[in-house]
Structures are given as C-alpha cells and as structure tokens.
Design brief:
By secondary structure, this protein is an all-alpha fold. The chain has helices at residues 2-15, 29-42, 47-55, 58-62, 77-85, 91-98, 100-110, 114-117, 120-128, 135-142, 147-159, 174-184. The protein is globular.
Length: 186
C-alpha cells in the first residue's frame, strides 16, 4: 500500500507539479516543493518535517479544475492536502501542512517586516486567505500543538521561490516520504 501511495504522490508532484506555476511566482509547484524540502533537509529536520515540506502544497495539485487561487479565491488548499494525506501520514506531517497558510497570517501579525518581504503574489493570496491575524488570533494559533514547526516550515516555504535553482530530484526525497508513511502505519 505505501508504495502505491508514495508513487502516486511523487508522480503527481513530478508530472502535474511541473506543469503548474506556484501561484503567480516564477517557479512551478514542483520546483517550489523541491526547494522547500531541500531547505528542510539542509536544516537536518526529521523525515516527517521533510515530507511535510515536500508535500505542503499538494492540495494545489488535487483540484480537478483550475486552482481557485488563480481567480483570487481561497480554495483552502492546505486543508484539501492535509485531509488527503491524513489517511496515510501522522499529524507530524499533516498539521504543519494544514497550518502553513495560517503560519503566514501569524508571521505577518507578529514579525516586523515580514509582510513587506512577501512577494506580491504572496501578499495577494494572504488577502484572500483571511488576511493578517489579530493579536488574539496569533496568540491562540501559536499555542496549538506543532505550530512552531508549521511556522518554521512556512519560513522555508517563503524562501523556496528561486528561479532555475538546482535541487535534488523527487526521487531523492522518496526515502523521507516512505519513512513517514511507515511510521504512521505501525
């Protein structure tokens, strides 16, 4: 079972992800995913964290039609992806994925200069994704389980938009995805 699910996810990233732009950024969904996972790996993160970094935007690839974000609508891709993945992975993978959009809203609320440093595409998506958290929302968010990890992954997400950056292939990250899958099935 794990082989077919992992194969499907990696193939989805490679095939559909290489054809779809990441929002209105200069990179494809695949390039973005690989850059994010590479950053997690370079920071010696766990298999589950690297898997979450690789798959955090898989929800964008699960839409049958075009991604609503291209029309200025929030398709809640983080929930779509996390809901799909929670059948096969534990919360150490799915919670950071589910919270990576909220992490952007959090960082924009609590960190001076964060919003200003966002790309124009990210600022636009932030607006349709609910905008900047209030102080109360930010405090409530960060005190939930694994939200510090989600915020850390968000930082990698924000950095993973470099045009023509050389990264390892999808196959390089297979072992992390398989190890995370197996960890959940024990």
């Amino acid at each position: 079972m794990s082989g077919s699910v992992v194969d499907y996810l990696l193939e989805l990233l490679e095939k559909k992800g290489s054809d779809i732009q990441y929002g209105n950024e200069d990179v494809t969904q695949l390039e973005h995913a690989l850059q994010c996972a590479e950053l997690a790996e370079q920071h010696n993160k766990s298999d589950a964290f690297i898997t979450a970094a690789l798959l955090h935007d898989v929800g964008h690839l699960l839409y049958e039609d075009d991604d609503p974000i291209h029309e200025g609508k929030d398709g809640v891709h983080e929930d779509l992806g996390a809901n799909y993945l929670e059948k096969y992975f534990g919360e150490d993978v799915t919670l950071p994925i589910r919270a990576h959009v909220a992490s952007k809203r959090y960082l924009a609320a609590v960190e001076d200069g964060y919003y200003d440093d966002l790309s124009e595409a990210s600022k636009k998506s932030l607006k349709v994704q609910g905008g900047i958290f209030s102080k109360e929302e930010a405090e409530e968010f960060i005190n939930k389980p694994q939200m510090k990890e989600a915020v850390e992954m968000r930082r990698f997400d924000d950095q993973a938009k470099i045009l023509n950056k050389k990264t390892p292939t999808v196959e390089h990250f297979r072992k992390y995805v398989e190890n995370s899958f197996q960890a959940n099935s024990n």
